[in-house]
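Need residues for this backbone.
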């Protein structure tokens, strides 16, 4: 088997806003769409991201442990920019930290089971033979 994509849930009321953010702010392209889901890819990546519409009223309490993760030389600043983008569209957004090198953005009204993480590139230097 070959890894293809990961899927997360978005509140249906804010589905299009989050998809717009991934497209306009992070450069993702839309690959496929159905009534309940969208598949996105960031150019240069080999894994796709699927978002499914959710009607759940409850948010996963430990969603901070499930991330859509990005590398950035300035991770907090990058997430602060995205938080401002969401706030400009009327959604509460909060940036917090796991450490001084890894941060996360939560948009509780939209993200059901994940947060967006940004971390310093050296944290992804795993030194695994055969990894590309």
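Answer:
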């Amino acid at each position: 088997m070959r890894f293809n994509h990961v899927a997360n849930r978005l509140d249906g009321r804010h589905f299009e806003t989050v998809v717009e953010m991934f497209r306009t702010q992070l450069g993702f392209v839309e690959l496929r769409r159905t009534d309940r889901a969208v598949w996105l890819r960031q150019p240069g990546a080999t894994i796709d991201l699927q978002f499914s519409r959710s009607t759940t009223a409850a948010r996963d309490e430990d969603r901070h442990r499930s991330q859509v993760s990005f590398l950035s030389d300035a991770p907090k600043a990058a997430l602060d920019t995205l938080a401002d983008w969401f706030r400009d569209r009327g959604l509460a957004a909060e940036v917090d930290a796991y450490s001084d090198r890894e941060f996360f953005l939560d948009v509780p009204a939209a993200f059901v089971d994940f947060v967006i993480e940004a971390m310093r590139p050296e944290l992804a230097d795993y030194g695994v033979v055969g990894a590309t």
